[in-house]
Amino acid sequence: MNDQAQLLPGTLDLLILRAVSLGPLHGYGILLRIGQISDNALLIEQGALYPGLFRLVRQGLLKASWGTSENNRRAKFYELTVAGRKRLREETESWNRLATAIASALSPQPEEI
Amino acid sequence: MKLLDSLRFRMAALFERDQMRAEMEEEIRFHIQQRADDLVRSGMSRAEAERRARIEFGGREKYKEEIHKALGGNFIGTLLQDVRFALRVLRKSPGFTIAALLTLALAIAANAVVFAVLNALILRPLNVPHADSLYSIERGYYKAVNFSYPDYLDLRDRNRSFDGLAVYILAPIGLDTGKNPSQAWCYEVSGNYFDALDIQPYLGRFFHSADEHGPNSAPYIVLSYAYWHSHFQDDRSVVGRQVQVNKHPFTILGVAPPEFRGTLLFFSADLWLPMVDQEQVEGLNVLNARGERNIFLLFGHLKTGVTPAQAIGDLNSVGSYLEKTYPKDDADMTFSLARPSLAGDMLGPPVKGFMAGMMLLAGLILLAACANLGSLFAARAADRSREVALRLALGSSRKRILRGVFTEALLISIAGGALGLLGSIALLRELSAWQPVPQYPLYLPVTPDAHVYLAAMFLALASGFLFGAVPVRQILRTSPYEVVKAGSSGIIAGHTGSRITLRDVLLVVQIAICGVLVTSSLVAVRGLVRSMHSNFGFEPRNAMLVDTNLSMSGYSGDRVPAMQRRMIDALEAIPGVKSVGLVSQIPLGGGGTSANVFSDQTTDLRPANSASWVAMFNISPEYFHAADTSLLAGRNLSWQDDKTVPRVAVVNQLFARRIFGSVDNALGKYYKMEDGTRVQVVGVVEDGKYYTLTEDQRTAMFLPFLQSPTSLTCLVVRSDRDPAQLAPAIRNTLRGLDTGLPLNIQTWTQGLDIALFPSHVATVALGVLGGMGVMLALTGIFGMAAYSVSKRLRELGIRIALGAQPKEVLQAALGRPLKLLAIGSAAGLALGILSGKVLAYIVYQATPRDPLVLGGVVLAMLLLGLVATWIPAQRALSVDPLILLREE
Questions:
Q1: Which residues in chain A touch residue B33, judged by CB atoms under 8 angstroms apart?
Q2: Distance from A95 to chain B by nearest Cα, in Å?
Q3: Residue A28 is part of a domain; what is its CATH number?
Q4: Residue B29 to chain A, least CA–CA distance (Å)
Q5: How far from B651 is each of B161, B540, B545, B598, B617, CA to CA, in Å?
Q6: The domain boundary residue, chosen from B32, B50, B73
Q7: For B11-33, what is the mean pLDDT?
Q8: Share of chain B above pLDDT 70, in %
Q9: pLDDT value, residue B571
């Protein structure tokens, strides 16, 4: 577990939006999905997920509704709203730009060689 | 805490938070169960899996809190949390809490009481429908409120601005309901009185204009609810019953509603009867005399749409008609409008001035209390600087800490305000039941209403913010690093330097306020004491007063002076009685008659040509002797001065000087009365006080009662005997002459109560406020001194260890509080002397330029400083350096 990376501030929201973008999920499901799509490379404290979920619901990016889980428990399911989908697209683009820039800045430059 | 919990529950239900909370809980539970299921599947035991799942989830409460925050902050939740925390903190320091609560409660109680009186006297209008359009009419430059009946009729019939003008006079009557005849107070009113006020009877009916058909034509009375309740035990069959008013049969028409007690705010009469019966009620009839202005007050509702300015213009045009038509009687017929509840400008301005002054002083008390509380809070903040620093270091925001401080301040202000309000309600109940002058039905219902509650709570909250704001700067400046590094004593060291801190300023302000209050209450007390012993122009000690009105027992015409002579003779025969004198109205007794006099040369006797407006008394020859008024020149009146000889009079010194130039010059000279009669001056007596203690010296004339008869009878009985024995003897003697005489017997000193009433009220009020000011200053200085000693115990210990003498220790420990005390006292004394000038209008002979007052203030402040610093000084001196140094 020691090779897991700490989350950068603000990235949890993006990960949640991404996880939910593939279909409605409950909180635990979102956690599993994030682990799955990130190859368990990110360290997320489980409880920290929920303030993020409530915040996104309040911002109108997610929609929550009560349903039944795969093993017949009552669970709250989250899905993307139209605004959420749009926000995911924008955030993904800006994250990619940033990541490219940082990556190229950090990659070995010709003059260093 | 039960109360708080239920409160929280209710609030939560209100905002559907309960459901939210439950959902959140369920969601988290689901998460943990899912996780545990997964762990079991990977081979863990159930119990171990659940434990593990909970650990992995992390701080449940923390996340719940964060969710709340994500939802925009649970305002009520945090507030309740703050309140609970503040309560816990306050409970931990009961001394601080109790001191703060009591300080604020005292100040709020003082303010609530003063405001309730202000509210009852000035803010609340008369309890009649549409009181806002009700005005009384005042006449001329001096804003006189008295009118003559013929003038009233003209004003009533010729004006076009009022929905009916009504008038009243206050008069005592002898009322015989078949049992013991007793004196009652009535409003003699015009027939349209109740209709003009638009009031409906509680029982029976009222009289109306249509019931009046000339003098003594309407023998009807309307009882007040209170009188009906106390004298007829709510008997509904009284309507139609016959009673005797001054031995004349009158019929009870009805009962007024309980909330209506008359048209003069603090004067609750027992009954109302028509003014056309004046002759039967007062024993004289001046309803046709245009020059006799004996109607007390004229008032009415303005018609809708008429402005006061328009009404004044309208009245003035009637006035100029009156001046032209009746030049002999009517002058200065210009009018102004005022509120009728305090008899317009007659009582309005002094009452308003006094109440404004009281409100100001009460405000000062509150300010002093705030200063006190502010320094308490500042001291507390300094003591808690380590705690604050620690909380800051642990990540608490300054905003949250300030919120905590303000929550404490507001809790104290709410609790203190409520406590003060409760106290003030008890006090006001006492005040409402108070009968300041027994012979008059003075009654002021100062029951607190919503205004009072609101004002008190507003003041409490405002002061809460005020004193809560004092430590703000301190907390904002707190640097966790510095505090933790230096320890608590290090921080304080910065405060003990010569720099002037906010707490110093607060303390000086507070002491100055206390100084003002102490000075003014001493000035008032001294003024009162002096006025008790000043020269009134008569000697109230060792004299009794017997008050009666012969017209109340059916005497009229020549039977009046004959009966008065028999009364005088009978009283003189009582053993131990030195002399008995008769006077129509006792000086300083709350009433009085004045008249214009003219110089002998004047032929046109219109009021504008009057030589002086003179206090007039009708007396028996023995009066000056009985009253102990000294004759300066000429002769006394005698039994020979009756209707068979030319009119004579004794005048006072000022009269002699003003009309004739000097006392000697006046003897034997003549002046003219309003009706043109020539009166010869036969004697001159010393000046005295006639209507009020604070009046400028007035001119006065004393007429022989055999020449100018009066049914008003006040007998001055001078005797060294004990009043308790003399009073029954007097009563028996007079009842022996006529069993139906309503009598009011009291000592002359008691009779002066009404004249001294304003000074009494002012003195008591100032005394109470002064006492509160002293208490606040005491606790303020004590707090400061005790705090400064306790903070510097270590330093003092070192000083003592190094051989400091007690004097030097005291100087180090208490020098600063005492210096502040000196500055504050000096400022307070200076301000107090200035305010004494205002006081002189209310309290006779109030002057701050009085060595006793100045000395008293200085002594009081010194004593105060001594008392307040005594315990801290003892503590400073008893410091044991060994113990102290070992502790560190």
A1: 73
A2: 24
A3: 1.10.10.10
A4: 10
A5: 44, 20, 23, 14, 10
A6: B73
A7: 74
A8: 90
A9: 92
Of B28, B34, B35, the CB nearest to A50: B28
Q: Do residues B436 and B442 make contact, with C-beta atoms less than 8 angstroms apart?
A: yes
**Residues B170 and B192 grouped into a single domain:** yes
* Closest Cα in chain B, distance from residue A102 (Å): 31
**Number of domains comprising chain A:** 1
Which residues of B fall within a CB distance of 8 Å from A74?
26, 30
Smallest Cβ–Cβ distance between A47 and the set B30, B34, B60 belongs to B60
The CA distance from B16 to the nearest CA of chain A, in Å, is 16
pLDDT at position B495, please?
Answer: 45
Q: In the structure, what pLDDT confidence band is assigned to residue B496 with cuts at 50, 70 and 90?
A: very low
How big is the CA angle at B708 (ends B704 and B710), to the nearest 5 degrees?
105
Are B33 and A73 inside 8 Å of each other by CB?
A: yes
Residues B148 and B166 in one domain: yes
Angle among Cα B319, B320, B326 to the nearest 5 degrees reads 85
Considering the domain boundaries, does residue A81 fall inside one?
yes
Residue B71 pLDDT exceeds 70: no
Does one domain contain both B400 and B379?
A: yes
> Is residue A113 assigned to a domain?
no
Shortest alpha-carbon distance between residue B57 and chain A (Å): 5
Q: Looking at the predicted structure, is the pLDDT value of residue B489 above 80?
A: no
**Which tokens is B174 given?**
């002898």
Q: CA B202, CA B225: separation in Å to the nearest integer? A: 8
Mean pLDDT of chain B: 82
Listed residues B754, B789, B822: the one ending a domain: B754
Highest mean pLDDT among B33-42, B121-130, B861-870: B33-42
User: How many A-B residue pairs are in contact by the CB < 8 A criterion?
Assistant: 60
Q: Determine contact, residues B413/B461, Cβ cutoff 8 Å.
A: yes
Mean pLDDT, residues B281-298 taken together: 76
Within 10 A of B538 (CB to CB), how many other CB atoms are there? 23
Contact B421, B473 (CB under 8 A): no
pLDDT band at B493 (very low <50, low <70, confident <90, very high): very low
Report if residue B858 sits inside a domain.
yes
Prediction ipTM score:
0.87
Assess whether B362 and B232 both reside in one domain.
no
DSSP state of B740: T
| Integer-rounded Cα radius of gyration of chain B | 37
Query: In terms of domains, do B195 and B313 share one?
Result: yes
Kindly state whether B664 is in contact with chain A, defined as any CB-CB distance less than 8 angstroms: no
- Asked whether residue A102 is assigned to any structural domain, the reply reads yes
Q: Determine contact: B23 vs chain A, CB below 8 A.
A: yes
The domain in which residue A30 lies consists of 5-106
A71:B69 CB<8 A? no
Q: Best interface-test mutation with B: which of A45, A46, A59, A66 has the largest number of B CBs within 10 A?
A: A46
pTM here?
0.67
CB contact under 8 A, B30 and A69: yes
Those residues whose C-beta lies under 8 Å from the C-beta of residue B262, and which sit 6 or more positions away, are: B187, B224, B268, B269, B272
Take residue B355 and report the two structure tokens written for it: 């109440």
**Domain that residue B139 falls in:** 131-338
Tens digit of each residue's pLDDT (9 = 90 or more) over B673-720 = 988 889 999 999 999 988 877 777 889 999 999 998 888 889 999 998
pLDDT band, very low/low/confident/very high, at A55 (cuts 50, 70, 90):
confident
Number of compact structural domains in chain B: 4
C-beta atoms of B67 and A51 within 8 A: yes
Are B765 and B883 within one domain? yes
- Whether residues B724 and B626 share a domain: the answer is yes
Contacts of A28 (CB under 8 A, 6+ apart): B30, B31, B34, B35
Does B651 have pLDDT greater than 90?
yes
Q: Same domain, yes or no, for B619 and B749? A: yes
Does the pLDDT value for residue B884 go beyond 80?
no
Least confident of A36-45, B313-322, B408-417, B729-738: A36-45
